[in-house]
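Thread: Newbie trying to understand structure tokens

Hi all, I'm a second-year student working on a class project, and my supervisor (Dr. K.) asked me to get a predicted structure for one chain before our next meeting. I've only ever worked with sequences, so writing a 3D structure as a token string is new to me. If someone could post the tokens and maybe explain what I'm looking at, I'd be very grateful. Here's the chain:
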Amino acid sequence: MATILCLETATTNCSVGLSLNGKLIGLKEDNTKGYSHAEKLHLFIQDVLKEAGKTLQDLDAIAVSKGPGSYTGLRIGVSAAKGLCFSLNIPMISVPTLDLLVHQLKNEPGMKIAMLDARRMEVYAAVFSQDLSQVRDTNAQILDQTSFSEYLQKSKVHFIGNGVAKFREIISSENAVFHEQKFPSASEMAEIAEVKYQKSDTEDVAYFEPYYLKDFMIG
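---
Reply by user tm_fold:
Sure, no problem. This is what the structure looks like when written as tokens:
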């Protein structure tokens, strides 16, 4: 059984989870309007460990959201993960941020599109099948009335993330199902991180960099 500390800082949601054998056993998060990660991340780590009756020495790995997302938020999360991995001599696991979003829809039928707000009418988006397999690469996309039409013409499509609100304003398809103001959370990281840990799918702590996609989203 692996005990994994999960860190999610790619958006305004500062989220820390603790998993045991792929099951979430602790969670603390704060999604205030501004970014509070620098002040709260390490306090949340302490709180989650304490509430679960664990210490840093009990950890087998650190999992961290890899992006895309806020440049500053990602830097804070990855820096914390690296520091812990170096000091504890344990592996680091990275999880794509949009995977964490779409996993909130794992029980919904149909195609799923996760999107994070970027700037103006742009989002970071990825397309997933019903079984959560990614079918289109993550990219920065400017939204218009024809966006994702190739999927919407065929079946119901679930859209999730804080980029959904502005897409809803310009699209009128009856096949679009909107899940607004949803944010990636460490609560969805436990299962994914456990699978990666068992496969030894880990990162080189010294050289790992977040997946910024674009550098202009300053948080």
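A couple of things are worth pointing out once you decode it. The beta strands are 3-8, 14-20, 23-30, 61-65, 92-95, 111-117, 122-128, 134-142, 157-161, 176-180. The chain has a mean pLDDT of 94. Feel free to ask follow-ups in this thread.
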